[in-house]
Design brief:
By secondary structure, this protein is α/β, with parallel strands linked by helices. The protein has nine helices and ten strands. It has an eight-stranded mixed sheet with strand order 3-2-1-4-7-5-8-6, with helices on both faces. Strands 9-10 form a two-stranded antiparallel sheet. Helix 1 runs parallel beside helix 2. The N terminus is likely disordered.
Length: 289
């Protein structure tokens, strides 16, 4: 499954997979693989693992496939990408969700900013597919931001090492927030460039209307709401300089569950149990490993 030369490289990309839509995954792979020196796909125990391998074997590019054989979580898989970047001698690595499609000049645009002092992460402007007809006018090429999602972001290996990587115990949800807050605590900057627009989808969004206002729910599976509740509490309690309030995040999520989600009662139960466990974790003493 390995097709890698032992050469020193500068840029690699990693994709975390878990039961992916194979057509979207193929689009994701094709959109990035020719832009970087090497590609790693870390699989969290997908049922269609063999089909993922078939897609990779058809590539005329360097790749490495790492099957974890069980769901070890997004944070753990992202750290595998970081470790792979170190093994390949890369200075930067791009992290992607399995359904994110990159523009063909993404890396070309990113490298314009890599030498700016203290920049530890470079990220795109996110265009959700459900809003794909929306057009924005940007008056600047880039800005510094506080929080970015990991998909489509390019992380400096030195910065990733400086914060001891992603927080494995978070498993999923708020993993993006944690790495950004950890980077900022260490003095690293997060740069968003509007020259790179990434097509991305969060959950399975559904549109709702209330009093002429529109809002979207994510329609995640039940278990995700446990981690949303737990990790919101954990991250908000661990970091002091937050760009948001925990109470507002939790109330907003609860309102969306009540007024927007189907089969809401088990999701609400998972969400509340997660909040309770988050406070228990906090009282035991938070340790970011």
């Amino acid at each position: 499954m390995t097709n890698i030369k032992d050469a020193m490289m500068k840029y690699c990309a990693g994709i975390v997979t878990y039961n992916p839509d194979l057509a979207l995954l193929n689009d994701c792979i094709i959109s990035i693989v020719s832009q970087v020196d090497c590609l790693i796909v870390v699989d969290n125990g997908s049922r269609n693992e063999n089909e993922i391998v078939q897609i990779l074997n058809a590539l005329p590019y360097k790749f490495f496939f790492l099957p974890l054989h069980s769901n070890r979580g997004v944070a753990y898989a992202l750290n595998c990408i970081g470790e792979y970047a170190i093994m390949q001698g890369c200075e930067w690595f791009i992290t992607l969700d399995q359904d994110s499609v990159c523009p063909p000049d993404m890396l070309q645009k990113y490298v314009l900013y890599e030498n700016i002092e203290e920049v530890g992460m470079i990220c795109p402007y996110i265009q959700q597919r459900i809003h794909e007809n929306k057009r924005s006018l940007f008056l600047t090429k880039y800005k510094y931001i506080q929080i970015a999602i990991t998909s489509g972001s390019m992380l400096k290996v030195a910065a990733w090492k400086d914060v001891n990587g992603f927080w494995n115990n978070l498993f999923i949800d708020r993993v993006d927030d944690d790495i950004c807050l950890a980077l900022r605590d260490k003095g690293w900057k997060i740069l968003q460039t509007f020259e790179v627009v990434l097509n991305h989808e969060i959950g399975h969004p559904r549109r709702h209307s209330f009093l002429s206002k529109h809002y979207y729910t994510d329609s995640y599976p039940n278990f995700r709401y446990y981690y949303i509740g737990r990790n919101t509490v954990v991250v908000c309690k661990y970091y002091k300089n937050l760009p948001y309030k925990m109470s507002k995040l939790l109330l907003r999520r609860f309102a969306k569950l009540v007024f927007g989600e189907k089969n809401k009662f088990p999701k609400i139960r998972f969400f509340i149990n997660g909040i309770i466990d988050g406070y228990r974790w906090y009282k035991r003493g938070l340790i970011r490993e």
